[in-house]
């Protein structure tokens, strides 16, 4: 559940969110990072596992944030400054909570929308025991159980990589759509300004020409 804590450095509130994990389960999250603030998230891991973090700024002026990955023992494992995206992997992990911090303190007026994914991998497949229970020597005479396990592991890894690639492509699509909408608004705004300027210039020219040819002097006879 979300928690709130007071930062000792900078005296700024952070939003602390503990992301639940399960074996080989990935977590996706999209949040709004206010201007001039820092938000951190905590991910619990087990020793000798691996954790991967991928993030993408999909909306906001500049499309950049700062990112820091800190280990449970307090070591800074990765640090990015004003990046639009990034990927970091830690292997092996240690017991405890890894801290993922996103920094927007350098932007005083623009908030950012950030998408990130946390990938937890235990390094083994929990389905091995189930396969071992189901496969008996009588029913699997013509097959090698180890070959089946290796094939299943390979398929699982490829499916996970495909899913992760699709997730990141969806984040890129969201960012590109935001850029297109923002550029469309700018083009429409300046087009209207140019149209108004052209109409004003045309009206001024017509008025000036009429004043030049308008002779108000009367001829007395």
Automatic annotation (TrEMBL):
One of its GO terms (cellular component) is Golgi apparatus. It is found in: Endoplasmic reticulum membrane; Endoplasmic reticulum-Golgi intermediate compartment membrane; Golgi apparatus, cis-Golgi network membrane; Membrane. It comes from Myripristis murdjan (pinecone soldierfish). It is a single-pass type I membrane protein. Belongs to the EMP24/GP25L family. Keywords: Endoplasmic reticulum, Membrane, Signal, Transmembrane, Transmembrane helix. The chain crosses the membrane at residues 187-209. Residues 38-120 form the GOLD domain. Pfam families: EMP24_GP25L. The lineage of its organism: Eukaryota, Metazoa, Chordata, Craniata, Vertebrata. This is Transmembrane p24 trafficking protein 1a. Signal peptide: none annotated.
């Amino acid at each position: 559940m979300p928690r709130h804590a007071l930062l000792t450095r900078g005296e700024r509130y952070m939003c602390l969110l503990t992301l639940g994990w399960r074996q080989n389960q990935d977590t996706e999250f999209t949040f709004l990072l206010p201007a001039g603030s820092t938000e951190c998230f905590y991910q619990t891991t087990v020793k000798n596992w691996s954790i991967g973090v991928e993030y993408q700024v999909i909306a906001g002026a500049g499309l950049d944030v700062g990112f820091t990955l800190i280990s449970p023992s307090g070591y800074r494992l990765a640090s990015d400054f004003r990046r639009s995206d990034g990927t970091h992997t830690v292997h092996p992990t240690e017991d405890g909570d890894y801290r993922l911090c996103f920094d927007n303190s350098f932007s005083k007026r623009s908030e950012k929308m950030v998408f990130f994914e946390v990938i937890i991998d235990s390094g083994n497949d929990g389905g091995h025991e189930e396969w071992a229970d189901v496969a008996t020597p009588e029913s699997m005479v013509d097959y090698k159980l180890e070959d089946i396990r290796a094939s299943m592991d390979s398929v699982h890894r490829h499916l996970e990589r495909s899913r992760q690639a699709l997730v990141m492509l969806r984040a890129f699509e969201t960012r590109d759509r935001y850029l297109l909408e923002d550029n469309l608004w700018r083009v429409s705004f300046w087009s209207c300004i140019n149209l108004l300027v052209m109409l004003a210039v045309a009206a001024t020219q017509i008025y000036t020409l009429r004043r030049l040819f308008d002779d108000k002097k009367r001829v007395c006879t």
